[in-house]
Amino acid sequence: MTTNQKTKLPIKLDSTSNGEFAPIQLGQPQQLANFTAEQSASTNAKYTNQSRRKFLQSSCGVASTLLAFNSAFAQFGMTGGYYQLSTESGKDSEVALAEVNGHEFIFDVQGHFVNPNGDWLKKLPEQAMPLSSLPNAQCDATTNKSNREYLNCFGSDAFIKDVFMDSDTDLMVLSFVPSAADSEPLTIQEADATRQIIDQMDGNHRLLLHGRVNPNQPGDLELMDALASEWKISAYKTYTQFGPDGVGYWLSDDVGLAMIEKAQKLGVKNICIHKGIPFGPKSFEHSLCDDVGQVAKLYPDMNFIIYHSGFDQSYVEKAFHHDNDNRGVDSLIHSVLKHQIKPNSNVYAELGSTWRFLMRDLNQAAHVMAKLIKYIGEDNVLWGTDSIWYGSPQDQIQAFRTFQISKEFQERHEYSAISRNQKAKIFGLNATKPYQISAQEVAHFIQKDSVAKAKQNYMNNPNPHFNTYGPKTRREYLNLLRWGG
To answer: What predicted TM-score, i.e. pTM, was given to this entire model?
Structure first.
């Protein structure tokens, strides 16, 4: 079953990837979910006497979409989790506002964008059109595909709009992609320039920076000093599966330990490590979390933030047992248990791309969230969205805000419901600990800064596009891999 969408749904189920894994096309449950949501939107728009586009931009449009997903997923036995909404929320704006909207402090610890005019483009073949699947509807009026002007649609301006205008995000950490120093789609200088744009809007502290370092690449260890002193990064970001000739490294081997000890000496306590979402069969073992518990025990004063939580899109998550395969989130759990790392200590689980994938499979969503809360700790699960590869993160926020583990799974697997307090922690409060930010101070500051005022004005006539930006087909993904080395 397929849909021919003229107006995009506010909650996006599609094949978009963050560029680190081959896009996974929608199966029958997801296709039915989109189809059912389309039908529901048309019916409810007429009921509320709104245009279809206006309805889908409303809270009722969001609620109607999520309710339709519940109905479709249930037909395929995906009853381990659900979006907890009243039936009337699809038609009653007051009910929808109360259930879909929220006032949590939202600190997204994984954001991305690319420099549309960066030196990285000079290294591509002249005919290469990276990320060219960007929907024409958004860009035709201002851009030209033939000379790559369309890339402006996800540069810094688009990043600011998608994150700070079209979503409830308060703070974000700008991260990096795996790359050699001479082929970065976004350099630290360019990232800092965007931070300065935010700062000039009186939005100080809304945007923090990572510094990319892969200690198995020549020169990266030496660059750590400047990243800490000159660019004032909040964490180092590394990819253990990435390296020269596609060969990765372990955090616990000589180069990994050298990186951790140098970060420790430089006073940067956060090491953010891509784990899971394997890049492919080469060096696959380095995508596993075997080394995480070991280094966490060796360096109790350091924070090890596991990006993607070890999630492997080709591994079906289920309830944790000690004899489970060493794959996916279970790989992370095996590691912390083996090395006796207690929940809520110095290992953190981040949800970028992980939650985005789980939105389309609510059985896996229930298992993953319950396992992370139990074994990593309810204070150590961090919100991340990998946006803007997936467009504005608002749909991820609204889906998680309404998500709940079903009574069926609670009873069968001895899971607990996810409380509103736990969601508030995951959305942002937990990240204030490793990033050393006072949520109370930041929330007070944000209420009166220029970014907040700009959003208040924008919300008088919002214009969300509901587009996604990352590769959507295997061909686009392979092109990115080839062009990015």
So the answer is: 0.91
